[in-house]
Every structure is written in structure tokens, then in C-alpha cells.
Specification:
- The complex is a heterodimer of chains A (221) and B (201).
- Chain A has 221 residues and is mainly α.
- Chain A has nine helices and no strands.
- In chain A, helix 2 packs antiparallel against helix 3 and helix 3 packs parallel to helix 7.
- Chain B is α/β, with parallel strands linked by helices and 201 residues long.
- Helix content of chain B is 33%, strand content 27%.
- In chain B, the strands form two sheets. In chain B, strands 6-7-8-3-9 form a five-stranded parallel β-sheet, with helices on both faces. In chain B, strands 2-1-4-5 form a four-stranded antiparallel β-sheet, with helices on one face.
- Classes of the chains: A mainly alpha (221), B alpha/beta (201).
Chain lengths: 221, 201
């Protein structure tokens, strides 16, 4: 079996085994999207306007939650040494880890996003756009987030540091996705916002493994 | 397959502290070298530098005369240290299958390793439920499962009892007979004949 496939299987098994897979992120997501109407007020007209945006922003925040486990555990217990000496380059290893993060957290969140938007009163027609944004945006969040996780390796308050590193990098995809959602809400074709989001996701997938690998090398040294 | 490992004028610095400098030695096929030295002398750092995980402050590590042979390095050596990379919450079978599979072992290699280190019953247990010695046997099993020339072992025998020290000693002897190389950081003498290199003054 291809070693990278072996690694992907292990990453998914580890995400499920110890961290409960997507459950903490999903619970957080459900919690925040439920609390927001309590804070803003229950008027359906008001909520319906902001529902897609809220569903989208909360998704970005929820995808921060499990980033720490992407590299930190393997670094602490020496598994990163083993991974670095297996054969495949660190860049590929990092890409697989970020991909596993997307599969185990981003994908389930993408299915939850339209549900949350509809619950908050968004028109049904917007659900597919919300799903697409969450799906593509989640990929960008996983790869950019993985970069934050690699950069925070070895620091004591890793989880907090990851959020501080990653949140500014989440700004472009949040803007592009928000743009796509408001275009769709106004009835215009939502293509340009989605395309920008795709572009950002592709750039993240292509570039962040290089930076993640450099950060891991630094942490191993 | 690597046939010589040359350490030339190597110096390693950790933070502000210079651990050692001007270290020179060569290991050739079939040879075992024991690295000795006080705690903190830099034995583990030297092993990690040879594996290419740690950048030395000066000097070169050559495999078959070529410096910085990243490919040869990662394909043809095992590094097993105190941090063995095993996940406590997974079974020994899952962790061995991953570690060995990652290094290119097949099912036959896994079976050979389980037999050589007598892992039979242990494989179904979670790693955190193993004793230190049993856990070390699971870690060492990847040496057998995925054959590679250069073994870099950090105190491989310390948690093992006398029976297992002898059995792992026999595995090492077999490896050396097949043209393998061993570099081990130790406090007690190795159970196989070999040279000793002292690290740090």
C-alpha cells in the first residue's frame, strides 16, 4: 500500500479515536449558532438577513478548534521523527495531514453549515451556496490552519497561538465566501465570489505544505 | 544500501551550549559502534544529526562519501529513541503496522517482526497498557519488519530485562552479519563486539 495512503488512514483513525473526530467542532458550531439569536434577538426578518453570514463565520471559528492535534501530538511523542524518516518528503506528509484535517472536521462542518443557516431562517435557495462555500472554504481553513499548527509547534500555549496566527489568514476566504453569499442572496449569479474562494483554497493547498514542512523541520531541529 | 558512514569534524550546538566539536569517526558495513558519554553530552543529538533531523553547527555527515544524501538517509536508516512515536491509545498492532508500513514493510515483514520480538499476545493491547520493556519491544520490531542498513538506537536495551537484552543482542548480531551497521547510545556495554566512541570530554 502506498505509504501516503497508510498515513491518511492513520490520521483519520487518530482524529476519530482520541479527539472524537468532528464531534467537538460540530458541537461548538451548533452551540454558537444557537447562542447568536439569543444575543441578537429572535426577529425572523433580522435573522434571515444575517443567517448565511453567521453560519459561514461560525464555521471558520469552529474549524480552528481541532487544529492543535494536527502536529502537536506527533511532535511530543516522537512520531514526527518517524514520519520524517519514512521516505515521502515532509511536504507530502504535511499535505496529507491537512487533508485529513479537512476530511475529519471540514467535511462534516460543511454538511452542518446549510442546516445552521436554515435554522436561523435563511431562504432555502441559499442552502446549496452555503454548502459549497463551507466545502471549499473548509479546505482553505484546513491548509492555512495546518500552517498555523506547524508554526506553533513546541510553544506552550499552542492552541491560542494557532488562533492568533491563523485568524488574519482566514480574512480573505471569509470575505470571498461572504461575497458569494450576499451575491446569491441578491439573486445575482454567485460565481465570482465562489471562484475567488476556490482560488484562495487552491493557493492554500499548493503553498501551505511548503511552509508547513519548513516549520516542521525547524521544530525537529 | 549504505556501506560507510563518515562523521567529519562534527560540532553540535544546542542553544548557547556547544555539546561537542571536532568529532570524527567512520562506521563501515557490519560494524557496531557504541556511543558513550555523560548525560547531556550530546549522544541523542548526534544520532538525530546523522538522521538529518538536526542541523550540526559544523562538519559533515557522509553516506558512502556523499554529503547530505537525503534520499539514502531516509530510505536506509532507522532511528529509535526514547520518544518512540507510539500512540498510547492505539493497539500495539495498529501502531506497529503503521510504523513498519510507513518504512516500507509488508505483511511478511510484520509477521517476522512479531515473531522475532515475541509480540503475539501484546499486539492486541493498547500501547499505554504495556510495560516499558514491552513497549520498547514493539518499537524495536520495526527494525525487523522493514530491513534498513543503518540502525541508530538511543539506549535500546535500557528498559529490557536480561532475557530480552540477550535476544535483542542476537538480533543486532544477525543484522551486523548481514552487512548492517549499528550506532547506539549506551551506558552499559553493547552485547555485541564493537568499538566505543566517547562523546564530550
Amino acid at each position: 500500500m502506498n505509504p501516503l495512503a497508510v498515513l491518511l488512514r492513520r490520521e483519520l483513525a487518530l482524529a476519530w479515536g482520541r479527539g472524537g473526530g468532528p464531534l467537538p467542532a460540530l458541537a461548538f458550531y451548533a452551540g454558537v449558532t444557537t447562542l447568536l439569536p439569543l444575543a441578537i434577538g429572535p426577529e425572523p426578518e433580522k435573522l434571515a438577513v444575517i443567517a448565511p453570514g453567521i453560519a459561514w463565520l461560525c464555521l471558520a471559528l469552529a474549524s480552528l478548534l481541532s487544529l492543535e492535534r494536527v502536529f502537536e501530538r506527533d511532535h511530543e511523542d516522537g512520531a514526527l521523527d518517524l514520519l520524517a524518516l519514512g521516505g515521502p518528503p515532509l511536504e507530502a506528509i504535511c499535505a496529507i495531514k491537512a487533508l485529513a484535517q479537512w476530511l475529519s472536521t471540514g467535511l462534516p462542518l460543511a454538511f452542518a453549515a446549510p442546516v445552521a443557516a436554515l435554522m436561523l431562517g435563511a431562504p432555502v435557495g441559499l442552502a446549496p451556496v452555503v454548502f459549497l462555500c463551507a466545502l471549499i472554504g473548509g479546505l482553505a481553513f484546513a491548509f492555512v490552519g495546518g500552517l498555523g499548527a506547524a508554526l506553533a509547534l513546541g510553544s506552550r500555549r499552542g492552541g491560542l497561538l494557532i488562533a492568533v496566527i491563523v485568524l488574519p489568514l482566514f480574512a480573505p476566504p471569509v470575505i470571498f465566501g461572504g461575497g458569494a453569499l450576499s451575491q446569491a442572496a441578491m439573486g445575482a449569479g454567485q460565481v465570482s465570489g465562489l471562484l475567488l474562494l476556490c482560488g484562495w483554497a487552491l493557493a492554500a493547498v499548493a503553498l501551505s505544505p511548503l511552509a508547513m514542512a519548513a516549520a516542521c523541520r525547524n521544530a525537529l531541529d | 544500501m549504505i556501506s560507510t558512514l563518515q562523521i567529519e569534524d562534527l560540532a553540535i550546538r544546542r542553544g548557547e551550549r556547544l555539546l561537542f566539536e571536532h568529532l570524527d569517526f567512520t562506521v563501515s558495513a557490519g560494524e557496531a559502534v557504541a556511543l558513550t558519554g555523560r548525560n547531556g553530552a550530546g549522544k541523542t543529538s548526534l544520532l538525530r544529526a546523522i538522521a538529518g533531523l538536526l542541523r550540526p553547527a559544523a562538519g559533515t555527515v557522509r553516506f558512502d562519501g556523499a554529503p547530505d544524501a537525503d534520499e539514502a538517509r531516509s530510505r536506509d536508516l532507522h532511528l529509535i529513541g526514547h520518544l518512540d512515536g507510539l500512540k498510547g491509545g492505539r493497539t500495539a498492532r495498529e501502531e506497529l503496522a503503521f510504523a513498519a508500513g510507513w518504512c516500507g514493510a509488508d505483511a511478511a515483514g510484520l509477521a517476522r517482526a512479531a515473531e522475532a520480538l515475541d509480540l503475539g499476545r501484546l499486539l492486541n493491547l493498547e500501547v499505554r497498557k504495556l510495560s516499558a520493556g514491552q513497549r520498547r519491544r514493539v518499537a524495536l520490531a520495526r527494525l525487523v519488519a522493514a530491513p534498513r542498513t543503518l540502525w541508530l538506537l538511543d539506549e535500546p536495551l535500557s528498559p529490557l530485562d536480561s532475557v530480552w537484552r540477550a535476544r535483542v543482542g542476537a538480533l543486532i548480531a544477525e543484522h551486523l552479519e548481514g552487512g548492517g551497521m549499528l550506532l547506539a547510545a549506551v551506558h552499559d556495554p553493547l552485547p555485541v563486539p564493537g568499538r566505543t566512541v566517547e562523546i564530550g570530554g
